[in-house]
Amino acid sequence: MMKKAIKILLLLIIPFSLIGQNIDNIFAEKKEIYFSFNIKDKSQLDRLSKIISIDHKTNKKDAYAYANKKQFTKFLQKKIEFKIIDNSISYNNISKNNWDYYPTYDQYVDMMYAFADSFPQICKIHSLGTLNSGRELLIINISDNVYQKENEPSFLYTSSMHGNELTGYVLMIRLIDDILNNYNSDSYITDLVNEIDIWINPLANPDGAYAGGNSNVWGATRSNANMVDLNRNYPDPQDGPHPDGNSWQDETLMFMGLSDSIDFNLSSNLHTGAVVANYPWDTWIQLTADDNWWQHICNEYADTCQYYGNSNYFTGFDDGIVNGYDWYEVDGGRQDYMNYFKHCREFTLELSNDKTPNPLDLPYYWNANKNSFYNFMEQSLYGLRGIITDSITGLPLKAKVEIIGHDEDSSHVFSSLQIGNYHRYIYQGSYQFTFSKSGYHTKTINASIINNNFTIQDVQLVPIGFVSVNNIKENKKIINSIDILGKNNNNNNNNIIKINIFKDGSINKKIIID
Ligand SMILES: [Zn+2]
Questions:
Q1: CATH numeric code, 105-379
Q2: pTM of the predicted model, to two decimals?
Q3: So what CATH class is 2-84?
Q4: How far apart are alpha carbons 270 and 161 in whole angstroms?
Q5: How far, in Å, CA of 172 to CA of 187, rounded?
Q6: 8 A C-beta contact, residue 106 and residue 90
Q7: How far is the CA of 165 from the centre of ligand 1 (A)?
Q8: Ligand 1 centroid distance, CA of 495 (Å)
Q9: Which CATH architecture has domain 384-461?
Q10: 96 C-alpha vs ligand 1 centroid, how far in Å?
Q11: N or C: which terminus of the chain carries fewer CB neighbours within 10 A?
Q12: Secondary structure (3-state) at 500
């Protein structure tokens, strides 16, 4: 009897004391640990993803995850067997030819500013802000008229928001270099620069990448300096503004500010730890309205990598592509934020199984991905596009573009000021598009789309109401009178806009509603 009681007591006490002891030892030298455990089922994994940062290496049986001390304490309470993985890496960083090295932080900054200095006509550098560490979030803008808004889609590549996932970091610096040096010599790249507003941010988490100091990336962490996983720190369509329980980090605020000021149309967010093109959603099970378009885009990316890469590159999952939620749930991810709240089509690219590959392998990853990088940029030109203006003044409008019987979960898009241009990417077919803005009559237009092609549809929206004509003077003589017939889709009445142009150059306009 006595014996039994002691046994029960031990069972209760020992795991608890072990937890306390372990956790201090474990976090004595590191602020962030990497570990693995077996998964019972997907629902268990989805529950745990709300406590710890599930990593891209996770498959159906084994989960890989990162945690800081607070997160790991919560995980231990679940009493799941785990294995801590030593993820420290180091390579000799001697070679500096052919993009086969990771630059120091200062080399990186110098390269970025040198791009803008060397190609001032087509390249501009922006600092999104300086972190408490003194490190900057830098982004390069490349376009033919880099200082002015044009009827062009805005395209974004951003890499390494997970500071230790660094393949895309070097590849994006190299992409900037490739674009700039081939402008006016390679006609394909020249066309992309002339027709797209290109933005490239090679390093979204410099404090994570250089956590071990500015001289190399061997001490890199996934999280930022506050041990926050930046890819769990965004407002989430399902889980609200702070799904991770942390305030928005400076890096998050800087990127949210960027996406408020630039209406990005198409984007990709580069990671490592797996090789796959991961498309939305991450937070919930339902598919996006444009699931077939996403599969087309991701297949194009993966197929091109299969062609240029080794025989097994981009062949995992479903032939190199995967639906985010189907893989593992992510709440507070950047991809869903951009799609749901900013109406920008963004997907997540996983470029290599090694988080920070041997730098000598970086040229291989460049050769395997280069054509896919360009193909995806080219996709920003396709779909239905045009300019939306006020039918009377001709001024550009920020209006809503919606597809009847198709759009859901915020998949509609808006035209962008100062130009009024809109870009609606969609899988080929015939659709009914509506163009609307409060104060204007909604316009409905049928249009057909072909994959990897664009259809141009400029739209003039007619203002609702009546502009009174008070000041026509008898002595003015009308020299020209224009009637414009507009259709009001709400009740199918016709609106006639009458514009009179007088001899003295003055104009009046009036809308007659039948
Ligand atoms: Zn990542």
A1: 3.40.630.10
A2: 0.84
A3: alpha beta
A4: 8
A5: 21
A6: no
A7: 6
A8: 54
A9: Sandwich (2.60)
A10: 26
A11: N
A12: strand
